[in-house]
Design goal:
By secondary structure, the protein is of the alpha+beta class. The chain has 3 helices and 2 strands; from the N terminus they run H-E-E-H-H. The protein has a domain at 17-60. A two-stranded antiparallel ribbon has the order 1-2. Strand 1 and strand 2 form a beta hairpin.
């Protein structure tokens, strides 16, 4: 089932009720967006997801140069 919503001028939207129900979302819950091959998946984020993501952020910056992109482009 496709659910569509409008994006506001502040890039905000409302998560449709069927999606909130499917993900068991409540006000104040964290949601995560996973991007792979131009496909975005929305899911409920858990505190473990958030802690893991925050822990990785600093370490991933060391491979974010143009030279790294060129060196690893074929992997």
């Amino acid at each position: 089932m496709l659910q569509t919503v409008k994006l506001t001028s502040k890039y905000q939207t409302t998560v449709p009720l069927p999606v909130r129900r499917a993900l068991h979302l409540s006000a104040g819950d964290l949601i995560g967006f996973e991007i792979k091959d131009n496909v975005v998946t929305l899911r409920r984020a858990t505190p473990i997801d958030l802690a893991f993501t925050q822990a990785l952020q600093g370490s991933l910056q060391e491979w974010s140069s143009a030279a790294d992109d060129q060196a690893f482009k074929d992997l």
